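Let us practice reading a record.
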Amino acid sequence: MKVFARTIAAAFLSCASCQAAFSQEQTAIGYCNDRVDEYSFGFSWDNMPFSTGVLLSADMLEPYVGGKVVAVRIGLFEGEWQEEIDNVKLWIKLDINSDENIYEQAVGTCRPGWNDVALDFPFYINSGSFYIGYDAVQRTAGMAPVSYTKYDTPEAGSLYIDGVDQSELYGGSLSLQCVVEKEGLPDPELSITGMEITDDFLKPGETLKYRLDIANGGRITKDFQVSYQVDDMEPVLKNMTDSIGSTGVCEDEIEVPELAMGIHSLKATITQVEGKDVVLNTFEDSFVVYDKDYPRQHLLEHTTSVDCMVCPMGQNRLEILTEGLDNVEWISYHRNMSPSQIDPYTIDFSSVFSNLMYMTGVPQFSINRTDIMGDNLTAYGCAGDIRVITPVMDKALTYPAFVSIDLKTRYDEATHSLLIEASGERSGYFKMIYDDAMMSVVIVEDSLVYYQKDWDIYVDEYVHNNVVRRIYPESGYGDMIEWTGDNYVYDTSVPLGEDWNLENLRCVVFMHQPVAGQYNSQIMNSASARVMADGGISGSAAGGGMAVTASSEDGRIVLSGDYDSFEVFGLSGMRLENDNLEKGVYVVRVIAGGEVKALKAVVR
């Protein structure tokens, strides 16, 4: 069974599509939040039957012994990969691996959001533990309908798929709750189990948004008070009405007072529950206040190889990841897979970069050489599911730049070199956090036609884009920036290879910390410029007496002007039939008068 996990926060999530109504003698128990969460998983085949459930431990059930389960709530994801599931059958088991159910009930179809299922017969709770879950069928491959709650630390035994403990894989619990009815339910017992500030960087006067994960050892409550404290300032009390079952989420925002530049803390404590004063644990997270930022070009550094059978898959994932983004610069370092398999685009720095980022192989990528997700990783695999790496890009795009780069380039025909001038300024916050800054230059070439291994097939005419031809200085460690006040000017000259196609070259410069290890080689900003015009623009292209147009009616690319022949390639490098092309960007390889040109077109 192939399982894929959804890890993207969808902006249009709702708390619940079908919120249950509880009496005073009812509450919901389970591991999940009292809302459909932003994580989900699904399967890669059509008409996929599956079984999933959670363990309700004796410790969790102890306050409810003598009560009864009267309903079950099944939570399904609401967002981009949502889908109904059908043939749903609810079950309760004593042994997760047993085919014997001590309770079962046909449900039918469940829809995105909460599905509240009243039990035909109440299930009475004794002093032991049991498993509760459901069997179902996912009809469409590639969807991720089953919602789950994510935790930094997996809750042991909280998530099972087809009898296998998946709590470590998903680090969380199924969105599944029992509605328990009992006379004299225990009072709410709230505690904060986690805290996350939505935006790590704030300008003075901006609103601070945050989320609290809360556990509840008693009945459901919507009446509690939280004390918030920024640094050592006077605490602020806020009355909350979020519904907290056995677990829940409280989301809010506060106005941040005038703060000095630098790192600040936000502390949160629950101080009252249903009007009663309590003394509970305090959680803390940090955020940054800065003075100003500048336009940013994020640098995506990719490792690949012509003999890597999954590199085309990684290429495809990165195309999806960067689609529609004009502030992401993508460059690719080629690496030899073994001494006997030579990738002609490999440069010495490719191995240095891979070691610097602790990359274990190819294809992998890094964004701004930064530990973006706070998980001690600066490199990520890109041949797996796109939903795993999308949150990395989403988070990276929120990072501001505290230094500017204005790039000017000029080709010197006499020396066959590129003259480069980068200039800019730094902010006050930049000076607080960085002692030194280095500048590096890479020359990148597009539209290189060479073979590529695609699983067990060699594709002879594969178009390689974003290929790093040279890094300067050759060590890759950069040149020291010399500041005049808060301004700098960086001049250098980089020789170009004789066999490089000038029309397909671009220059990328990036400022970074001195390279001495994984966590202090962070890229502060980057900029790029074409070496010469490549003759291609999005949608239509003109150059060298030729024009390319893309027809939206029959999905064909049409070339006018003087030429001998042309071929159409997808961005993955595969040659395509010029007919019924799907919407997207394509590379047109033109032969005219013995010369080869690469133009670009978009089918809309």
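A brief commentary: The chain is about 5% helix and 45% strand.
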